[in-house]
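Example 226, ligand flavin mononucleotide.
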Amino acid sequence: MEKLTVTAAVQARISTRAFRDTPVDGALIRQILTTARYAPSGGNVQPWTIHVLGGEVLARFKATMQDKLATGEPEEGEEYAIYPPNLFEPHRSRRWQCGEDMYGTMGIERADKPARLNFVAGNFQFWNAPVAMFFCIDRRMGAPQWSDMGMLIQTTMLLAQEAGLATCAQEAWTRWHRTVGEFLALPPELMLFCGVAIGYADETHPANKLRTARAPLDEVASFRGI
Ligand SMILES: Cc1cc2nc3c(=O)[nH]c(=O)nc-3n(C[C@H](O)[C@H](O)[C@H](O)COP(=O)(O)O)c2cc1C
């Protein structure tokens, strides 16, 4: 199979929210992360720790989460603010549109809160993905290192794309940070940033039909002397 160009991988990657049961070869995941380690970080500090779950271990974790959701156990609160309070324009509208488009694709009415919540709960089964990653960072690290971690995550997702896999980054996991921390036996200095679901996409699922828009280039970039 011919390899994707970087451009093609960037264009093909989407947040996949329905996966097939098809297992993923652990060696492939190791290969992806082996290469992803070459993501840049300021001062090459590599401020990340990655925890990968699959097979029986992931099944056990998913069962723990299923129990919590089924019994209505309250979420644990965000360990960091996913969005700033009172998200402002133009970002607020972009976020709203993303939700509208997502529920529209799924045929879920905005007013149908139970259906929306039920869909979002799929986050906590990794959208049925057979492999899960948790990306963690030392609490002493600051914004620049969090940005470094973004580089690692996107590099991982693009390499996964090249390998024929699909992904979904999931900061929603911060709402269950205690459960994740206990399961992974994270030392107190490590903080969960996000999960990444990884596996083979269920191409037939409506959730995977969504293609999100982007602001026009001239709205987000300015050019001088070029
Ligand atoms: C760091 C990060 C965290 C995200 N967390 C979630 C999440 O918890 N649940 C989810 O369904 N999507 C999540 N997303 C996906 C975004 O909603 C998605 O990237 C955005 O809408 C653009 O769509 P695309 O990824 O399909 O291009 C996350 C994306 C990033 C980069």
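Summary: The beta strands are 49-54, 131-138, 166-170, 190-199.
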